[in-house]
Write a structure and sequence with these properties.
This protein is mostly helical and 170 residues long. Helices cover 61% and strands 4% of the residues. The protein is built from 8 helices and 3 strands.
Amino acid sequence: MNSNQDDRFNEAVAFVLANEGDYTCNPGDPGGITKFGISEQFVKDNHIATTIKDLTLDEAKKLYKEFFWDKYSFNALNNIKVATKVFDTAVNIGPVPAIKLLQQVVFQTITNPPVDGILGPKTISETNKRYSGYIIGHYKAMLINYYNNLVQKNPKLSIFLKGWHARALR
């Protein structure tokens, strides 16, 4: 990986970490116990040799790099603000829903758009052709709707709505 790719990832992961914070254990949080936004369940599911309490910041960054940034090709999105926003959303709500929101934005004028949650060549190409301000503005609006729908389906999550809205608008 070249230094430009390193710089892009470091910028994006700094944004994610600013949104995630340190160790949290909120019984109402569907994510469960987390540290730096990495959940205890994620560590177990991926057979990672650490515990959440022992997870270091450097380990968290490596996990974000391997399991999110590289795995879902966020670096292929030319505009770092778009890449960062989708990456941050993937950490918060999961990669597939985050990518589907992006696809809904970039393919909204296409009949039967390919909204499959895969950041493949067509989604990357269409995203890279569009004005980043348009994408980010529409993406944030769709993310707000996503969070509102979550709370509508599960009112117990309403305690997180203000924070989710703030995160969506960053």
